[in-house]
Amino acid sequence: MLAAEADRMAPARVPEDLWRRGRRRYQRRLAGAVVAVLTVLAVALTLPGMLELAAEPPSTVAAPAGGAVPGRVFDPRVWQAPVTQSPGGSAAVLLSGSGKGLGGGDLPGMYGSKIASVGRDGSYRMLRYADTYLQVGQQVQLSPDGRFAVGPDAVEDLIGSSQTQGRLSVVNLATGHTRHFKGLPAAVPVAWQPDSAALLLWHKPGSPPIKYGETPPFDGNETKYGYVGGSLWLLDVATGGSRKVLDIGTAAFDPINSAAFAPDGRHLAVQLDRTLALVNTADGSSLTLATLSAGQRLAGTGAFTADGTRLALFDRDGCAVACTHAARNQRQWRLVTLDAATGQPGPDGGFDRVPGAVVRLAGWQRNGTAVVVTYQNQQGPDYDREPSLELPTAYRTVSAANLLAVRPGGGTTQLIHPEGVQIWDIDVAHDLVLDGRFGGPSPKPAVFPAAGWLYWLVLTPTAGLLLIVVLIVRWRRRARRWRPARDSGAGT
């Protein structure tokens, strides 16, 4: 009966391209599924940033002409773009410290040191070095005009090994270009020349540091803080040429605080032991300005006043030798000045005493206000049972660094407020210090631009997913072709 009914039925009309239509429909469905998966991935990756932008849109406050130092600083994004990939222009400040975006690591394949370059509009970019425990204002220094950053020439990416091409690298923060310097006679950055055209470098001798328990004659801090001997060299950044400026001999020298350029760039104040000398950088001649007391020391690279007529010293009151971190933090520093030409004591400016384990002068404003970086050391049972062997400005020692305006006649103001981040050192562009351009726009770090590894992190699973889809499609096609052949073979 079924056969008879089938004979009476009209045959079904099957289009000749039925298989092609079905394949196209299947491909459209597959493409739709892939697009849906990619869309979900994209939304999952960008949704946190979109929600944050919706909750708090980027600041639209315009920066003053020439930029300004932001009033607040934040922890950069973990994926914040590096300067070399997406330069953000001249920097207002460089920051080193601890946080999800600012902290480094010792493990292979991780950044040894991550340093934030905060632009004059408040934008964030990163400098990344393979060397660990680098501090800005020390091993990494910002040029006076904010255009360049000098540091060790060891660069590491997230999954690669470190690559050292020379002894020092100078990164142009405006263009992202990096210049590598090889074969230098000295490689420890000490200070930038005021026009940002040259660098003062210290040839660090192989002699051991001052022994524990001895009082370094330049400031009275503990072991490892000062070294004996070596020489100072001037590196022309444009040509790469270098020449010796001063032979230190057997004197103790502190590379962080013991040298300062005069505003004319032709003279250099250097502290050797307790002797404060004025050096002519053109011919290397020098004259002694003063013999400092045991508690006095040159105030740092910003020691010269804006007009170059006076030179600043810090006079320490507090523990000098074999100090715990708590004892260091109780120190008080008095700011005094000398006549830069004669070395005679200058008038008492009436500055407030500055507390801190150690301090350094970043520079002077034109109105006579001193801009000072202060350091607080870690405290607790592990740190205060015995005297510290670490430098008071060292990465592993500092718990907080602050930038203060210390005004003549009294009064101190904190210039930068950290928000959700530990700052262990600050380096500020000297031209902004001179003009007192502080309290600029302080937007939170933007979601984009992002570091290149983030795009790889997104693209790699996406490409893997597409590969899996392609393999599944090819396997299914082959399975369909094999099935009729297998069935016909079984029938015969």
Automatic annotation (TrEMBL):
<keyword id="KW-0812">Transmembrane</keyword>
<feature type="transmembrane region" description="Helical">
    <location>
        <begin position="453"/>
        <end position="473"/>
    </location>
</feature>
<feature type="transmembrane region" description="Helical">
    <location>
        <begin position="30"/>
        <end position="51"/>
    </location>
</feature>
<keyword id="KW-0472">Membrane</keyword>
<dbReference type="InterPro" id="IPR015943">
    <property type="entry name" value="WD40/YVTN_repeat-like_dom_sf"/>
</dbReference>
<keyword id="KW-1133">Transmembrane helix</keyword>
<protein>
    <recommendedName>
        <fullName>WD40 repeat protein</fullName>
    </recommendedName>
</protein>
